[in-house]
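Box 3.1. Reading complex inputs
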Amino acid sequence: MVDPAGPKGAVPAAEAPDVVAPASAPDDVLRVEHIAKRFGPVTALRDVNLHLKKGEVLGLLGDNGAGKSTLIKIISGFQKQDSGNMLLHGQPYAPKSVDDARAKGIDTVYQDLALIDELSVFHNLFLRRERVFKPLPLLNNRQMKREARTALDEIGINIPQIGVAVARLSGGQRQAIAVARTVNSDAGIILLDEPLAAMGAKEGAQILDLVARLKAEGNVSIIMILHNYVHVLQACDRVSMIQDGVIALDKPTAETSVQELTEIVVNEYRRARLESQA
Amino acid sequence: MASVAGGSAAETPPAAPAGPERALRVPSRRQLLERVISLREGSIIVVTIVTAIYFSANTSSFFTGANFETLLPYFAPFAILAAGEVFVMILGEIDLSIGAMYLFAPILFYKLNTSIGLGLVPGVIVTLLLCMCVGALNGFFVAVVGINSFVATLAMLFTFEGLALIISKGTPVATPGGQPPLGTFGKVFGGGTYSEIIWAGAIVVILQVVLTFTRWGLYTVAIGSNKLGAAEAGVQVKLVMIRNFMLCSLTAALVGIFEAVRSATVQPDPAGANEILFLAVAAGVIGGTLLTGGSGTVAGALIGALFLGILKDGLILQGVNANYLLFYTGLAVIVAMSANVYVGRARRGHSGSG
């Protein structure tokens, strides 16, 4: 799927003038400008520009290997971009680590969930934010259990036993815990990498409900990678599609349709096939 | 023994209140059995008790105070070694270099004391610190360079056993502070009859608390269970790994010094050190720590070491030919581990606490 130097040609990023980026500066909580990332010979991201408004839910679409997860990992501080820069609330944003990004209010649910099978539900919920008996370094399990219970109740996720290891939970429950961990973190920006993967229809609906509720509260902004166009149109305010390492489409969901999104993908597929035949 | 196991259980152990309340809370015999088995250390506790009963019934001298004293050196050093090793094994790694640290530490201690003239206690402290540096090097090769821990620590095992032979020129020497009549130093650091068992008890309790009730322990389990996930959640994976390798080297060096003081001589004997290394790993595994990582217990390692000690001591008392000792130990480990696997499956089947 990685095409060797497509017709567009790579834009040498970094100090390029800001005209390429969509202009809606004042209420943007996050701006991503000319981000590029290579892994050896593979170009994951060529020149990505993205912006996220306060309280907005942005759906991120793209083929497998288009670079969606890479983009998420760069924003969340897990990987570093080769070039390009990011702005958080108008200030330069260059997270040094996942902890650093989290301290700045950006938290992530990864595709692989980053859950620890052997640890209990509440230890997972509080990983890296453990409650301790200050000044002793001993874990305050009771407090964590109580807070975990409250947090899960608040976001409407029903896990009967929060003392069990997450290995024993169903795929949907695991996903719910991973999402709950992030929601529970008081982050201003939440990144969800395929939150509906490995979920049944009913569990998926619960997660989308949760997203809708968070949106209604208006405190968080969300970037969500999805595959199902119906879900995107239903849950997101705006949709961005990554193709060949650049944003190929950026539109409010009200102005687009399943047909249009499908057409873009089909055209891309045709083009790629023609190129490989030529 | 039961109290050790209770301390490591996730739920609060029943505090045995008096009166009618007690009748309500005491579980039936079947529930009690299930609860013991549902502990991670459950199977080895049962196996150890059965082994002890067998030897008590078959030899007249097993269940005596005098024999208890002979038993101590058969398991206390292994309990300490295994306690450190468990922290590395939970990561899903292994540290073979503990054999070298066990051998190298007393020789280094001897050199520091005799050549540089460092006092006994400062000598021990400097020795331990230097051995922890070796542990940090282990951790560096595994976590940062990315060498498989079996290979990296095997190389370190050879290197430092070799270094021990070079420095000592292969000749045994008298341990500083270990000569009779023993002073306070000698009595505390391995020479006293109960010195090693007290150290073992304290170290096991402290490390079990660290493992179950601190962030360090939580992250150790997290890395062993899901390394990428732990990193994505923000755990400093490399730092925790290096720290655990340092701990492992520290406990090994400590045991090396204890044993040298106890036997009054520093023996540059790599073969003996290697046997001790494997028995320590065996104690950890028998005690219920997975070599694949993600799960383990320090208290279990103590009981695993106790099991191996009872086995050796019991077989000797029974008058088993010395040539058969290793053979029987091997068989017993296989039987105990098989029991562990089956009981472990039963545990995952019903128990609520992990």
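In summary: Chain B has one domain: 44-343.
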